[in-house]
Amino acid sequence: MIIDKLYNDVQKKGPVCVGLDTQLSYLPRYLLDSDMSVEDKIFEFNKKIIDATIDNVGCYKVQIACYEALGIEGMRCFSRTIKYIREKGAIAISDVKRGDISSTAKQYALGHFTGDFETDFITVNAYMGEDAVSPYYDFIKNNDKGMFILVKTSNPSGKDFQDMYMGEHTLYQQMGMKVSQWGKNFIGKCGYSSIGAVVGLTYPEEFKIIKEIMPDTFFLIPGYGAQGGTGKDLANIFKDGLCGVVNSSRGLITAHKNKTEGADFDYFVNEAVLNMKKDILSWL
Amino acid sequence: MIIDKLYNDVQKKGPVCVGLDTQLSYLPRYLLDSDMSVEDKIFEFNKKIIDATIDNVGCYKVQIACYEALGIEGMRCFSRTIKYIREKGAIAISDVKRGDISSTAKQYALGHFTGDFETDFITVNAYMGEDAVSPYYDFIKNNDKGMFILVKTSNPSGKDFQDMYMGEHTLYQQMGMKVSQWGKNFIGKCGYSSIGAVVGLTYPEEFKIIKEIMPDTFFLIPGYGAQGGTGKDLANIFKDGLCGVVNSSRGLITAHKNKTEGADFDYFVNEAVLNMKKDILSWL
């Protein structure tokens, strides 16, 4: 089960997930001014960050939107970035938030669990219910893949629908219960399921309830840093062990801004990773 | 407003939307056996269908999952297919069902409303609330773009969450009310908004309620044909006029199967389009 590798990497190297939501404006001057193509510039940026941080992070999350924004050459860069993460022996999460009917989900599974864009985990939106999720089950079983399903998102409007009550429970709690149930068939040796959940750090009180609803679920936790979540907020969530990985994107991959425009930018990104790791672990 | 063009095309050429959810297995033998690349084969298939049907359809919907499944060359084919539809003067809907936090949604907007993948409409999943939608508003206003937001989907598991009651209303009704409200600022001369809704034909009773909740909303309606919806089901929805476009994918683009393996396959696809159009209009 892929969750065992992620779990072990997190225990060994820490609960930081570096979000490679790379935009051209994040690149240091020396790269922007080089003769490389946009594809090569962004890949070089990502590669240097991966090389610098690989011993200190649990995994990498690559936000596909930033690459779709650059068209075909962006998609080539997306493919190369994920391949590089996996070649280096780290876990790649493709943040694609796909969600569609069964026959279409099968196509997404082929797209992201095989071929040019092959990754370890994808993120999934289950507004359309279980048949938008079940086509991935075969790939979890037979191809050692996994997914994180959106439960409670970190953005301000997350509450628009997710916090509405459906009977006794909110929508995000209903979603949490279903995701936990779907995950029961895919529990690894580590005790967690290869079907995880995305739950934002920005709502620490809600997280407590979610943990009770989802005891076997490993969490992908956005919202640290730029979005407002702190190591203190994580203390409760991680009090019985590292049951998730905490993503930061801008907070890490722009850490070199106002410090350097040179090839040493990766030093500052790694420094930010180490600070984040220290911050989180200091509360445990 | 882009909705005016879609509305006019539907009134003039009929309410059929051809879903180019193309898979290699759909291609006739003569194309499969040719020396072309996979990209060229699928583009040729799509191109011939577009050429054959363009006078008889309201628009085309391209399901990106089928192209992501083929990696980089699939994405090139996706780009070429959308470009071709728009060059021929027809409306392209990119069925991408994206949905993410504000800063990421901006990247998706750049990805699908500019550059290699530029389209007219995208489909959007609003589980994450309004800030997963609002980054597209500028593009509706300034770039003549539009979107269809998932309200009630046509798949069997659509009910898992969408049919749950939140107070007096189900989740899909709550979603419908929000989408209708968000759309008020983007109403075109035709009386409908450039923010439309995806509502499956497979639940005709629910559709009645949705139409009352969403009086200014133009609908993208999947579920006809292969998924079970019929022209009869559309009679009520269209009784005051063509307020939507009805998608069929497999039912149309595999119509040549068991009839020909040759270059005349497009004749059978167009025949299926004409039959579908006739079926729908016969009930009005």
Which helices and strands, and how do they pair?
2 copies of one chain form a homodimer.
Chain A: H1 2-13, E1 16-19, H2 29-32, H3 38-53, E2 59-63, H4 64-68, H5 71-87, E3 92-98, H6 102-113, E4 121-124, H7 137-143, E5 146-152, H8 159-162, E6 165-166, E7 169-170, H9 171-183, E8 195-199, H10 204-213, E9 219-221, H11 231-237, E10 244-248, H12 250-253, H13 265-282
Helix pairs in contact in A: 3-5, 3-13, 10-11, 11-13
Would you kindly provide a written description of the structure presented here, covering whatever features stand out?
Two copies of one chain form a homodimer. Chain A is of the alpha/beta class and about 280 residues long. Chain A has a single domain (about 1-280), classed as TIM Barrel, CATH 3.20.20. The first copy, chain A, is about 45% helix and about 15% strand. Chain A has 13 helices and ten strands. The first copy, chain A, has helices at about 1-15, 30, 40-55, 65-70, 70-85, 100-115, 135-145, 160, 170-185, 205-215, 230-235, 250-255, 265-280, and strands spanning about 15-20, 60-65, 90-100, 120-125, 145-150, 165, 170, 195-200, 220, 245-250. In chain A, strands 1-2-3-4-5-8-9-10 form an eight-stranded parallel beta barrel, surrounded by five helices. In chain A, strand 4 (about 120-125), helix 7 (about 135-145) and strand 5 form a beta-alpha-beta unit. The first copy, chain A, is globular. The mean pLDDT of chain A is about 95.
